[in-house]
Amino acid sequence: MALYQDVKDSMISFGKGDKENTLTGEFCFNENLNVFKGHFPSLPVLPGIMQLEMVQHVIKKNTGISYKIKSIKKAKFNSQIVPGETIKISLSFYPLEDDSVNVKAVVSVGEKTSGKIAANLVRP
After folding, report:
1. pLDDT tens sequence across 44-72
2. pTM more than 0.90
């Protein structure tokens, strides 16, 4: 629960994207947060699982619906994200008949893509 709180507390903004079924969110993590205590103490970097949590949180803030990860189709993290950087999530989501959604997300810092995520999320 503490990690989810770190994501919630680190959100700067959220909103709808330019196209239908697109959402955005921005985050900035303080280095004193729980998420950095074990990953890694001498060189803190944002864990990939937190980037997945950020995707879920962007959807919840924009739609009011909570989703859990059902499956991860792709998770590629190209570069480290360190405390204090502003992180932008841009995502597209595609509702399915079973109340789940397929999500494709791009994680970026500045103009640089830091990661890409494709996942299926379900309502708990």
Report:
1. 999 998 999 999 999 999 999 999 999 99
2. yes
User: Going edge to edge, which strands form the sheet with 22-28?
Assistant: 11-16, 22-28, 86-95, 101-109, 112-122, 68-77
Instruction: Report the distance separating Cα 6 and Cα 108, nearest Å.
Output: 19
Delineate the domains of the chain, giving CATH numbers in brackets: 2-122 (3.10.129.10)
Coil, helix or strand at residue 61: helix
Asked if 122 and 70 touch (Cβ cutoff 8 Å), the reply is yes
CA distance 45 to 26: 17
- Strands 68-77 and 112-122 come out as antiparallel
